[in-house]
Amino acid sequence: EEEEFVSKKGIFPTPDPAKKTPRSEDKRRCIGRKAVTDFEVGQAVSGTVVYVKEKLGCFVDIGCHSDGFVHISQVQDEFVKDVGEAIKKGDEVKGVVIKVERKKKRVTISCLSEGKIEEKKAEGIKRKEEKERKREERKKAKKAGKKLLVSQVPLSPPPPAATMVAPPVRDGGEFKVPTVLELKAIDTTAMEKDELKRHAKLLRRAEKREAEEAGKGE
């Protein structure tokens, strides 16, 4: 007597590993079901609603291994807030295949009228073109910004001479740097952040230098 095993699809005899079961006799397979690749865009289909997701859409048994999907925007020509208002589980529906996704094993169906399908398609193309146009505009603006001449950019007025930190200058053969008193006498209230940092750096160096010189004198 053959042993039996239980699966989700029923109870079947344990197959003999030495004997290959023909596909037509294999009860574990979806006999009579079509593959996703058997459907094509524009094909008219009909089937029974097997599942309804109120805010998303519904799934229809169209004789495929995967149920056909109808998005909420493709249920009927009029606006639908809740799919359950227009379609119920067990309803027979007719539609047209608008997308076949082989990798996802999904067939998308539209139950709209032919004129409405064309209108939706035109809107989709228009949105895509508008998106592409904006992308090109951003690309051109970015490219033009890189080529903008410095002379075209408005420059801020230079700070007053009294606030600028004097750089070291050459006096004969040596560099003459500002002293601590000279640096502390400069008004720093109107300085920018970078100028303040440079002033503080020069002041620290001047104080260190004068301290070293005082130590040598002692």
Number of helices: 3
* Most strands sheet: 5 strands, mixed, barrel
Which geometry do the CA atoms define? elongated
User: What structural class is derived from the secondary structure elements?
Assistant: alpha+beta
Structural write-up:
This protein is α+β, with helices and mostly antiparallel strands and 218 residues long. It is built from three helices and nine strands, in the order βββββββαββαα. It has helices spanning 114-146, 180-184, 193-217, and strands at 4-7, 10-13, 44-53, 57-61, 68-71, 92-101, 106-110, 169-171, 174-176. Strand 8 and strand 9 (174-176) form a beta hairpin. The longest helix is centred in the middle third of the chain and has 33 residues, at 114-146. The model has no long low-confidence stretch (mean pLDDT 77).
Please supply descriptive tags for the structure shown above.
single chain; 218 residues; alpha+beta; five-stranded mixed β-barrel; two-stranded antiparallel sheet; 9 strands; 22% strand
Question: What is the secondary structure topology, with strand pairs?
Answer:
Layout: E1 4-7, E2 10-13, E3 44-53, E4 57-61, E5 68-71, E6 92-101, E7 106-110, H1 114-146, E8 169-171, E9 174-176, H2 180-184, H3 193-217
Parallel strand pairs: 5-7
Antiparallel strand pairs: 1-2, 3-4, 3-6, 4-5, 6-7, 8-9
Short account of what is shown:
The protein is an alpha+beta fold.
